[in-house]
Amino acid sequence: MHDWQKTYWQDEQGKRTTIQDVLSGLQDTPVVALKIEDLAHIPSVAIEEHRKERVDLTVPIIVEEKDGRFKSILDGHHRRQRAIEQKRTHVLAKVFKGDLFE
Hints:
CATH class: Alpha Beta
Number of helices: 3
Radius of gyration: 14 Å
Helix content: 10-25%
CATH architecture: Alpha-Beta Complex
Number of strands: 6
Order of helices and strands: EEHEHEEHE
Strand order of the largest sheet: 3-6-4-5
């Protein structure tokens, strides 16, 4: 199992949502091109240089939208950073609308 496949989010009550749960919920969601500037308010995480250099920008990032605003990047920080460094204006994405713990 790859490290990203171990990704999960946990609420205060201990309920977990895994990356597999999110991907399953997004299966029929279309890929869109999001403006990089629309994600600028989302803080970055520690980026491993070797991983960033190997990213595939044809794989969409996963962005969480809540109340009409992009709240977080659930998967794809390295791809976003690579797109920024390549001076791209857009990045491919799937938008997760909903609650991680429903």
